Sequence to fold (114 residues):
Amino acid sequence: MTTLMAILIGCLYAAAIYMMLRRSVVKLVIGLILLSNAANLLIFTVAGLERGVPPLIDKGHEFIAGNAADPLAQALILTAIVIGFGVLAFAVVLIHRACEVVQTDDMNEMKGTD
Fold:
């Protein structure tokens, strides 16, 4: 299962880099989306793909009984989703404004304008 996830993550990273190197800014945004999803899957896979009980300590016990899910990975992924959404929203607004001013979505034509 982890081999399949590693291949999927590698393909997502490759597709994200390929899309971000294209000339269109719309493809740049799609690359950013793929990059954030690949990073989330990487964190999820590194933390382990096992199901477990919620990481809660019962009253009167000192430790979690049984196989518990890793709360650190869940918190990191939740934070990464929020940050990825913020970066994506900022990029969409910035690119929309740049396309309005320059009247093109080609990166090479945008580079020539100051």
